[in-house]
Amino acid sequence: MGADDDDTQVLDATSDSTSEDTGELGLGASSDPSHALLSLRGVKSGYGSLPVLHGIDLDIEPGKTAVLLGLNGAGKTTTAMNIAGALKTWDGTITFDGQNATNWSARQAVNNGITLIPEGRRVFADLSVERNLLVGAWSNKGSGKFEEARERVFDYFPRLRERSSQLAGTLSGGEQQMLAVGRGLMSGPKLLIIDEASMGLAPVIVKDVFDIVSDISQDGVTVLLIEQNVGALDVADVGLVMEQGRIVARLEGEQLEDPTELRKMFLG
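User: That's the sequence. What structure does it adopt?
Assistant: Structure tokens below.
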């Protein structure tokens, strides 16, 4: 980050971090949101009567890799599920690619270019790698682009090409994560959301996955990584720090080069 004192001030600004509290845009918003592919404004949500999100503002520009970083229970997955149409938004608005996406179902989200890869990989263990990829292409069925999309996935993940006929349940954890990402890419997303890509993986495999995510972003797919792993900031264009259902910092440029305060916060 640019300066430790400035960063500490940002991280301590939880009480001023949302439009709900200040009447202004929260800390997750861009200084120029007009070019954003995805924008959230004042988003509130939760489970049953339990509120989890307390007015989220954020912007992600096209072709960027954003990392939503926070400890367990911060509200990261709840945010992802709202964006992907998997959980009802109580209040606020979600705008995607110029459209009001606040009340989209999961099917509408996928059809309009939002794909969520949930935590835990969740591959179809009894299906082959090839069949898993075919399932991921369901929204593109009839388009005649399955082979093209599959080859693109195999270019990103050569090991999946080698194991295309192997049952997914027999793959290693790292290979299953690669398959989960590949399956998500089969739908041709504009925004790919990956929840806890690094969970349970060896550091060397995590680096491989993050490097490939960077390649995917460079090829024009906007990526949102949901992470507890501070190392994800190494591939980020934007870092969004979340605490207790609020975004408390937005990090860009030089702020991402030396995230000293964040490492202290997460690692002690």
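The CA atoms of residues 118 and 241 lie 20 Å apart.
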